[in-house]
Design a protein that fits this description.
Helix content: 25-40%
Largest sheet: 7 strands, parallel
CATH class: Alpha Beta
Strand content: 15-25%
Distance between the termini: 14 Å
CATH architecture: 3-Layer(aba) Sandwich
CATH topology: Rossmann fold
Radius of gyration: 16 Å
Family: Belongs to the glucosamine/galactosamine-6-phosphate isomerase family. NagB subfamily.
Number of domains: 1
Catalytic activity: alpha-D-glucosamine 6-phosphate + H2O = beta-D-fructose 6-phosphate + NH4(+)
Shape: globular
EC number: 3.5.99.6
Number of strands: 10
Pathway: Amino-sugar metabolism; N-acetylneuraminate degradation; D-fructose 6-phosphate from N-acetylneuraminate: step 5/5
Bound molecules: 2-amino-2-deoxy-6-O-phosphono-alpha-D-glucopyranose
Strand order of the largest sheet: 1-10-9-6-2-3-5
Function: Catalyzes the reversible isomerization-deamination of glucosamine 6-phosphate (GlcN6P) to form fructose 6-phosphate (Fru6P) and ammonium ion.
Number of helices: 7
Order of helices and strands: EHEHEEHEHEEHEHEHE
C-alpha cells in the first residue's frame, strides 16, 4: 500500500517531494532520477533548484530519464518533452544535459526506440526514484487506460482526453500529436521508489480510482498499489473523493 500524504498546497508538496529527492542524492550522488513532465512536478523541481542554489545539494553526478516523448515531434520543438525537461529540470537544477535522457520520438527505425530506451535505463543501473504525475483519466507517463501492467517503453496512441488536456501547449488542438513513446507500467514498477503527485479537483477521480480501486489496466495509475515503496503526495482537492 502506498503511503498517502495530504498537503495544503503545491508549495508544501514540492518541498516534501524535494526533500525525498535531496535525501536520495545525499546518500547516493549518482542517483538516477525518473523525470515527469506536466505542471504537477514544477514545485518539486523549483524546490530542488533552490536547494542547489543554496549549496545544500550537489547534483553533478545525478542522471535522469524522462518518462515519455511525443512521437514525430523533433527534440528542438519547444513543446517536445526533451525541450520541456531541458527548460524545467536540466537548466534550473544545473544537471549535466548529457546525463539526462528522453525517449527518441523521431528518426529511423522508430519501432526500436522503446527497446533502446529500456537498454539505456538498464545500463544506468535502473531508476532509483521516479517522480510521477497522473492524468485526469488515470494515465501515468503516457500509459493510457488499457496499458498492460507489465508493459515496457513503447509507442502508444494518445487518448482523446489527453490530447484535449495537452492542447494548451500547442497553438492548435489539431497539432497535438496522436502518438507518443512512453516508459511502460512495467518500466515504472521497476523503479526502486515512486513519488506520485496530484493537485486539484480535476485529479480527484483519477486519484481515488488509482488508490482505492482495483489494480487494473483500466486505471494505469493503480499500479502504485503494487509498488513496495510508493509515496503519494496530494492536496485536499485531489484527495476530496478518497
Ligand atoms: C502528461 C504527461 C504525464 C503527466 C500528465 C499530467 O500528459 N505525459 O507524465 O503526469 O500528463 O499533467 P499535469 O501535471 O500537467 O496535470
Amino acid at each position: 500500500m502506498a503511503e498517502i500524504i495530504i498537503v495544503r498546497d503545491q508549495a508544501e508538496a514540492g518541498s516534501l517531494a524535494a526533500s525525498i529527492i535531496i535525501g536520495k542524492i545525499s546518500s547516493n550522488p549518482a542517483t538516477v532520477l525518473g523525470l515527469a513532465t506536466g505542471s504537477t512536478p514544477l514545485s518539486t523541481y523549483a524546490a530542488v533548484a533552490q536547494a542547489v542554489r543554496d549549496h545544500r545539494i550537489d547534483v553533478s553526478g545525478v542522471r535522469g530519464f524522462a518518462l515519455d516523448e511525443y512521437l514525430g515531434v523533433p527534440p528542438q520543438h519547444p513543446e517536445s518533452y526533451r525541450s520541456v525537461i531541458t527548460r524545467e529540470v536540466v537548466e534550473p537544477l544545473g544537471l549535466n544535459p548529457d546525463q539526462v535522457f528522453t525517449p527518441r520520438g523521431t528518426g529511423e527505425h522508430i519501432g526500436q526506440a522503446g527497446a533502446e530506451y529500456e537498454a539505456l535505463i538498464a545500463g544506468a543501473g535502473g531508476i532509483d526514484l521516479q517522480i510521477l504525475g497522473i492524468g485526469s483519466n488515470g494515465h501515468i507517463a503516457f500509459n493510457e487506460p488499457g496499458s498492460s501492467l507489465a508493459s515496457p517503453t513503447r509507442i502508444k496512441a494518445l487518448a482523446e482526453q489527453t490530447r484535449r488536456d495537452n492542447a494548451r501547449f500547442f497553438g492548435n488542438p489539431d497539432e497535438v500529436p496522436t502518438h507518443c513513446i512512453t516508459q511502460g507500467l512495467g518500466t515504472i514498477l521497476r523503479a526502486r521508489q515512486l513519488v506520485l503527485l496530484a493537485f486539484g479537483a480535476n485529479k480527484a477521480q483519477a486519484v481515488a480510482a488509482a488508490l482505492e480501486g482495483p489494480v487494473s489496466s483500466v486505471v494505469p495509475g493503480s499500479v502504485v498499489q503494487q509498488h513496495p515503496h510508493a509515496t503519494v503526495i496530494i492536496d485536499e482537492e485531489a484527495a476530496s473523493t478518497l
